[in-house]
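Final report, closing paragraph on structural work. Over the funding period we assembled a curated collection of sequence-structure pairs, and we close with a single example.
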Amino acid sequence: MKNYLKTLLGTSLLLIPAVSLFAQRYVDSPLGSEGFPDYQSDYEYLTRYSYKYKHDTDGIKRLFQIDTVSWDEMREYYDRYVNAVPPANVYAGKDSVGGIWNMLMVRSPLADAPVKEARSGRGVWIFPPLKLRGIQGDKSAVAAFDRLVKKYPLKTDVKNKDKSASFAAVAPKWFDGSLILLDDPAYYMGFVVSGTPWFFYYDEGRLVYSTYMEGAPDYYSSRVLGLDGSWADRITKGMYLFSLDASREIPPATSEEPIEFTWLLTIDSKGKQDAQLLAPKTPDEATQWAFKRLRGFVRRLRHGIFHGLYTSDGRILPGRYIQAQYDKRGWLFRDLITLPKGKR
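Its predicted structure, as stored:
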């Protein structure tokens, strides 16, 4: 009996690490307690995944008014722009920012410029620090550039001892209020969006607050390794991993022909994900059955796997436009975002 107990105890001790590892992978999967993905050491990435403001959120709430696009509006934009040709230049009509990053300004500081002729122009800026390099527009706006920068220059604040001193500048007093910059903006079903926005707040020319969104806007794109490519490029590649999870959790289709449809992944204020069918408008029985299975899978996803994107009119887009194909091999998803071309 003693030998049996020793053997049982020894075997149990050997199994503890394996059972604990399995339990950790099971609980820490994107599906919570419903299962875990099919790629290696996934739980390690999930526990570290985050998408949040680099600094405190109080400044965002106090200094910036950020509205949210409704899901009804997202559906309307899909119907309106699904067959539209993406614009050649997403920066059209907006101030652009060059330098280390390619950015778009949600609101132009030139709107408050003391030289009235400059207000109708489109600013061309460099960052960091944020400086005006030129003005595009009619002749009067272009001519106003020299007068504006000569009379009201932007100078680097060399006395600033903060670690982010290179981002601080002493600007003219007319340089006032909130600025949102969208890094590598991309066209997305009628919207212009970014997954990496920057936030600045000026008080009569002095930069008093700055932060940015740190991390990838969804868990799957955070798993895409590599230094090249924009946040949008990683989103499109991350869809393959999302497809793997869906294929693992949902049994493959039994029909000979693939089932195809377009759907909207929605994200509520608490980070919960859901699905809405966008097309076809009158789905057949097979499509309804496939979408029902997909929706159940999406609803089981852990909260916060996907996050909203930031739009060029200063709002949050709480969802993703996704094409789906379902067949005997499982699921294949494709995000409908248009990759940035880098033109300004």
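Residues 1-28 form one domain. The first strand starts at residue 52 and ends at 53. We thank the funder for supporting this effort.
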